[in-house]
Amino acid sequence: MMTQNTSGTTWHLLECTDAAIVLLDNELRVLRFTAHAAAILHLLPADTGRPLSEVSAMQQCVRLADDARQTLRTSLTRSRLFEFPGGCRWVARCAPWPAYRHGTVGVVLILTDAV
Q1: What are the C-alpha distances in Å from 97 to residues 3, 44, 61, 68, 102?
Q2: Where are the extended beta strands (E) located within 42-88?
Q3: Domain assignments of the chain as residue spans, ordered by start
Q4: 3-state helix, strand, coil in the chain (%, to 5)
Q5: Rounded-to-integer distance, Cα 63 and Cα 78, Å
Q6: How far is the C-alpha of 38 from the C-alpha of 111, rounded, in Å?
Q7: Among 21, 27, 88, 101, which lies 20 to 30 A Cα-Cα from 107?
Q8: What is the CATH number of domain 18-113?
Q9: pLDDT for 20-45, tens place per residue?
Q10: pTM to 2 decimals?
């Protein structure tokens, strides 16, 4: 089981990799995001707790929320190429965020540059 300190250390490591990651709860609300994800999706601290479908950059990517819902329902990872406003192309991968003992806590959204 991860302690609060271990969890904080892990998140710091993710930030250092410059990875674009968004953690969503089981109702697809934004829990946490890296600085790189914030830059891509124009996320603000006020977006924490907001449903993914209400995040402004996501409103044009309706299928991404659908993929996240499918990931919650099936516990299978889904990937899709998206073109975000401004012409940037990203591969968005929705992966299940497993619970400590069983089940799924939410979804991990990972964006990688589709060069």
Answers
A1: 17, 22, 21, 11, 11
A2: 78-83
A3: 18-113
A4: 40, 35, 30
A5: 11
A6: 11
A7: 88
A8: 3.30.450.20
A9: 999 999 999 999 999 988 988 888 99
A10: 0.81
> What spatial distance separates the first Cα and last Cα of the chain, rounded to whole Å?
37
Confidence class for position 46, pLDDT limits 50, 70, 90:
very high
Amino acid at 14: L
Residue count of the chain, please give it: 115
Indicate the SS3 state at residue 37. Answer: helix
Location of structure tokens 């299928």: 63
* Lookup result for tokens 């914030």: 38
pLDDT of residue 99: 78
Q: Which residue has the tokens 């990688």?
A: 112
Task: Confirm if 43 and 30 have CB atoms less than 8 A apart.
Answer: yes
Radius of gyration of the chain (CA): 14
